[in-house]
Write a structure and sequence with these properties.
- The structure holds two protein chains of two kinds.
- By secondary structure, chain A is mainly alpha-helical.
- Helix content of chain A is about 70%, strand content about 0%.
- A two-stranded antiparallel ribbon of chain A has the order 1-2.
- In chain A, a hairpin with a 2-residue loop joins β1 and β2.
- The two termini of chain A are about 40 Å apart.
- Chain B is of the alpha/beta class.
- In chain B, the strands form two sheets. Chain B has a six-stranded mixed beta sheet, with helices on both faces. A four-stranded antiparallel beta sheet of chain B has the order 2-1-4-5, covered by helices on one side.
- The chains are: A mainly alpha, B alpha/beta.
- The interface between A and B is medium-sized, with 21 and 25 residues.
């Protein structure tokens, strides 16, 4: 008899569930690259993919919060770069204790989050313009503060950075695969974000504000407070991402975070099925989206595609994903 | 007069916006277990009156009494805390949240003990149970309480808004043109819900442009003109053309003309 209408219904419901589409896309992507390259599906390579994904993944959590409120954050990359320069410069040049330097770097990113959120809520500016402005402010500050130098200056083999700054680049071993602490932190942060968004009233308010801010206000939600908390939390996540980036690259680089991170974080969120119109999406989808982006970058390198074509592919990917969002999530009357 | 005490009462409300006087000494009262409709032409002061009663606007002069006690609403939140809930015409719901989440939006219940206090964990199960019970009491039919509101028809969506207001309103439910965005059949469903809300003991203030609906639902009809209450009528004492005539300020001659035109 095959599938009855009840069975079909169930299939349809499973396919419509959030993060199922992104998951299928992930499986297809992995299948494609494992056919093209024998090295791809090995444990060490997959561990490497995750290690490459961890920075963008953590940025994408913050980006998810912002996009769920129907905003967008273009300043992710440069704000992270600024936090990273603050951390490394204070620790190396200014003699701050490593943990204080890390804390101040994270606080700098939170400061940018509060600035973004404050401008969006108090003056009701569009997030797009606000974060385009703070993108440039953070970019300029990064270069002014660093004098265009990397920290530690010069590349002298082993990094002179204190070990606390490098902690999340360290690894432990399971089987024959090295797992980076930073990847563990990323997963923990995704778990916490999932909990906050789905299991607390605050999370439901984030969705309600993104859905229809006026309706949310009329039901008594303090929409300004929700938005400010979202951008502040995003700033905290960019600060943690800055720490991860220092751990991974073992230096503070004023030129970091300028090109790929912004687009990759947005691509991850959109590929993960979160709607740019706000109010719809999941952080689990974002995790899958971030891994897809990472796999594309890793897989294209493995099969010998030049770096410049990776930009081409991710550019096409994000437009495809946004088109799907337009066609499926367009406001139903 | 020794009638029952009004639940909500307004005396001599004045509100101006610059040169424009929106309310010019308006009075209002709402008694237990009744539906009061407010009608009036555009600019008569209906919505200013309603916004004053729901806390969205503060009057320049005049006073509000709730159960006989003087009250002052500085925000919609104040009115809400005093037990006054409002349903708006434009389906004020969060489309991607489910029915239970919408009914509890802004007033979520958390688990007792450390799970709720420290981890802020939502008590989904009790909210869904509560929401389902509430909807069935108001005879609002939905497939599942877990459905996102965007999958509902306009009438069902407004049903969710009415159910939310009825659930949280301790004293008064204000329905501000609740059917303006709905089709014929859906309008019918929402009107029936409003009657059931009243029958369960919650007095309702209804604002509507639709005279037949007003005359069907309302126990009393308050007619506003130029910022004042010009008359309070009932469907038993006045006909629709009479009410419209009072509303538009027609003269006695015009009124008689209107009446003869309507009777063939």
């Amino acid at each position: 008899m095959g599938l009855g209408s009840k069975g079909l219904d169930q299939v349809r419901r499973v396919l419509a569930a959030p993060a199922v589409g992104p998951f299928l896309a992930l499986v297809l992507t992995m299948a494609f690259f494992s056919l093209k390259s024998d090295a791809f599906l090995r444990g060490p390579n997959l561990s490497l993919v995750l290690q490459q994904v961890m920075v963008v993944g953590v940025l994408a959590i913050g980006q998810t919060f912002v996009i769920l409120t129907a905003g967008i954050d273009l300043s992710v990359g440069t704000v992270m770069a600024f936090g990273q320069i603050v951390m490394t410069k204070l620790a190396i040049d200014q003699g701050y204790s490593p943990l204080t330097a890390i804390l101040l770097g994270i606080l700098a990113c939170i400061g940018f989050g509060i600035l973004n959120g404050g401008l969006v809520t108090a003056i009701r500016l569009p997030a797009f313009i606000v974060t385009l402005g703070t993108l440039n402010i953070a970019f300029a500050l990064t270069h002014i503060v660093s004098n265009d130098l990397t920290y530690p200056p010069g590349k002298s083999g082993a990094s002179e950075l204190p070990s606390q700054l490098l902690f999340f680049g360290r690894t432990f071993t399971i089987g024959n695969t090295d797992i980076t602490y930073g990847v563990v932190l990323m997963f923990v942060l995704f778990g916490l974000a999932w909990y906050a968004l789905t299991q607390t009233a605050w999370g439901r308010h984030v969705y309600a504000v993104g859905d229809d801010p006026e309706a949310a206000r009329l039901t008594g939600i303090k929409t300004g407070r929700v938005l400010l908390s979202v951008y502040t939390l995003a700033g905290l996540l960019y600060g943690l991402a800055a720490w991860l980036l220092v751990s991974r690259t073992e230096l503070g680089d004023p030129n970091a975070g300028q090109t790929t991170e912004n687009l990759d974080s947005i691509t991850a969120v959109v590929l993960g099925g979160t709607s740019l119109f706000g109010g719809r999406g999941t952080v689990i989808g974002t995790l899958i989206g971030a891994v897809i982006v990472g796999i594309f970058r890793n897989g294209l390198t493995l099969i010998g595609v030049e770096v410049i074509y990776q930009y081409l592919v991710t550019g096409i990917l994000v437009i495809l994903a946004v088109s799907v969002d337009q066609l499926t999530h367009r406001r139903r009357a | 007069m020794n009638g029952p005490q009004p639940i909500l009462e307004a005396r001599g409300l004045v509100k101006s916006f610059g040169q424009v006087v929106a309310l010019n000494g308006a009075d209002f009262e709402l008694y237990p277990n009744e539906i009061v409709a407010i009608i009036g032409d555009n600019g008569a002061g209906k919505s200013t009156l309603i916004k004053t009663l729901s806390g969205a606007l503060q009057p320049d002069e005049g006073e509000l009494r709730l159960d006989g006690e003087r009250v002052r609403f500085r925000s919609p939140g104040d009115a809400r805390r005093a037990g006054i809930e409002t349903v708006y015409q434009d389906l004020a719901v969060a489309p991607s949240l489910d029915i239970a989440e919408n009914i509890f939006l802004g007033r979520e219940s958390r688990w007792r003990g450390p799970l709720g206090l420290v981890l802020r964990l939502l008590d989904r199960r009790s909210m869904r149970r509560e929401a389902a019970r509430h909807l069935s009491e108001l005879k609002i039919g939905v497939q599942s309480i877990k459905q996102p509101v965007e999958n509902l028809s306009g009438g069902q969506r407004q049903g969710v808004a009415v159910a939310r207001a009825a659930k949280w309103a301790k004293r008064v439910a204000i329905m501000d043109e609740p059917t303006a965005a709905l089709g014929v059949k859906e309008t019918r469903q929402v009107l029936d819900m409003i009657l059931r809300v009243r029958d369960r003991g919650l007095p309702v203030i209804l604002i509507s442009h639709d005279m037949p609906h007003v005359f069907e639902l309302a126990d009393r009809i308050l007619i506003m003109r130029l910022g004042e209450r010009v008359a309070t009528v009932t469907p038993q004492t006045h006909t629709m053309p009479e009410a419209v005539a009072i509303m538009t300020g027609a003269t006695r001659g015009e009124l008689e003309q209107a009446l003869t035109k309507d009777t063939p």
